[in-house]
Amino acid sequence: MKIQTIPNYTEDTLRGAILVETPLARAETISVPKPAPCAPGKAARHYGAIAYSRGRARTLNRRVGPLAKITALGAIVLLISAAAYLGSAAYREVEQARRLNEGQDRRLAQLEEQISRNSRQLSGLAQSNQDLLANLSLPTTLANDFNNGVCLISGSYVFIDPNTGLPLRGMKKLNDESGEVEQPQVTTGGDSEIAKVFYTGTGFHVGDGYLLTNRHVVVEPWKYDALSYFFGKIISVQPRLVKLEAFFPGQRRSYQLTVKLASSRDDIAVCKLSGAEVSKEIPALPLAQGAEPAKIGQAVTTIGFPAGADRLLSVLPQDEAKRLLEHYGEEGPSLLNQLARRNIVKPLTSQGHVMDLYDDRIVCDAAIGEGSSGAPVFGPSGRVIGIHYGFFQEDRLSNCAAPIGRGLALLRQAGWKPVN
Predict the structure, then answer these.
(1) Whole-model pTM?
(2) What pLDDT digit, counting tens, does each position of 36-85 carry?
(3) Are 374 and 214 in contact (CB under 8 A)?
(4) What is the DSSP secondary-structure string of 99-114?
(5) Where among 40, 63, 86 does a domain terminate?
(6) The domain containing residue 397 runs over which residues?
(7) How many CB atoms lie under 10 A from the CB of residue 344?
């Protein structure tokens, strides 16, 4: 089937004709495959639509010039570029927001850590203030709680002639009126008064009637005594302990002391007080039983009897003190018994700090004097961490104490059991 176009002819498109807007150079023949058999009316309309569509496409293609095509292509490229730019900008904004969030999270974490650090510092400061207040009030608290558990130890010893077994008699003072040392006049014969040496020290109750003090207080008090050394070297006599008594604050009588055990290595001794009622009448001091009871710089408190009876006499009115000295002598248990009856046997409390630590001693600067040997040294916990045994002659503020751990070992060997 052939359809021949007619130049310069326009027909209504509604009637299925072909519209030609421009004149054709020559007549063209379009070949169309023969369709399958169908109704005559439908075939005419079908082939008319095909012919119209193809012709319209050719016409439009001829009418769109290169500039329009380039413009369209540029528009498409511009649209794609704009879309890419917008996508990139959106991505950058998302990344910036993400980085900002991460920075804020880091800053928040830093602020939380700073708050936590400040909180710890405030807690530490509050604890330090509490420790400071506790240290300032500790001596008063310890004195109120444990003064009555610290005793003044009174002892006496004589000198025995190893050849006769008799004690020396007729001992005179070593100092004359001018203060110079004079030769004592002593003998083992006659009926003159036996030569006795009286001394004092300190001890403390640890429960069940057991007492801790120094070996040189209850076993060999003559070890550091110049007079005893003189007699031993010049006269060749041997000292012998005669009596040991303990005077506790608040108790108007003395207690007899028995030495249970003494260390050969440390200046520590364990004694037992006479009387089963002692453990109820006298408070027991708490002992630090930790692995490291003392540290350099820690506050320490000591309770002892420096200067013995002389200091106790000083609290009495001068006339009364003078009368006691005239009746009972300058030292000895007779005078101390009178002081106990007047209830003036009271220890002194002193505070200082740990200056140095060694395996066998604690060095502290708590003020203490002669007569305080055997005094308890309390740590900041309010427990005894050491047993005072001496001081440096050149520096009396440097005092030495045996660690309480060594005293605990000796106590257990002597049969003591910890008190709750």
Answers:
(1) 0.67
(2) 555 555 555 555 556 566 666 566 566 666 777 788 888 888 888 888 88
(3) yes
(4) HHHHHHHHHHHHHHHH
(5) 63
(6) 140-413
(7) 14
